[in-house]
């Protein structure tokens, strides 16, 4: 009963989160790398709070939705269980990298203690790990979409066989 709605929410949230991470990767990282280290730190201190205010709750909601979807699929024996578990694992990977690597680096970027050389190296490291987050996000999105497609297949199988293939306006007599 909850399988399809959870699969839908998981797919939407993973897609939105991944889209945000791709935007950062394609637009912001090159902009940051093109700035001077001091200019980057100033920009990051002024604007990173807004990014964090959007992406942290979005990431948490994605992790919760994917985990709930996987749990419902596994316990219910649904066809999409492997895909839902893969989506949850990949979303968990995004969260793990964020918490252990990117968030600590974000806090260092906003501190007044980094030299220009340290900033450049930390940004390089941050971007490498961010690329992994993007890949994990793409995996989560595709897997969640697969689980959603499987949820749709299961719903179709509940249609009585005499009604499969019937279209609106067909004579059922």
Automatic annotation (TrEMBL):
InterPro entries associated with the record: Anthrone_oxy
Keywords: Membrane, Transmembrane, Transmembrane helix
Regions crossing the membrane: 6-32, 53-74, 80-101
Protein's name according to its UniProt entry: DUF1772 domain-containing protein
Species of origin: Geodermatophilus siccatus
């Amino acid at each position: 009963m909850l399988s399809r709605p959870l699969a839908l929410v998981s797919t939407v949230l993973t897609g939105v989160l991944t889209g945000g991470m791709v935007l950062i990767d394609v637009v912001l990282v090159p902009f940051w790398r093109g700035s001077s280290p001091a200019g980057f730190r100033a920009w990051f201190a002024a604007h990173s709070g807004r990014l964090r205010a959007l992406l942290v709750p979005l990431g948490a909601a994605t992790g919760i939705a994917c985990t709930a979807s996987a749990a419902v699929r596994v316990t219910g024996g649904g066809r999409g269980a492997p895909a839902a578990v893969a989506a949850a694992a990949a979303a968990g990977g995004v969260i793990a990298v964020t918490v252990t690597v990117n968030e600590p680096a974000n806090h260092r970027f906003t501190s007044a203690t980094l030299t220009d050389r340290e900033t450049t190296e930390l940004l390089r490291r941050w971007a490498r790990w961010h690329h992994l987050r993007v890949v994990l996000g793409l995996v989560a999105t595709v897997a969640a979409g697969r689980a959603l497609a499987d949820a749709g297949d299961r719903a179709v199988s509940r249609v009585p066989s005499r009604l499969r293939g019937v279209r609106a306006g067909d004579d059922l007599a």
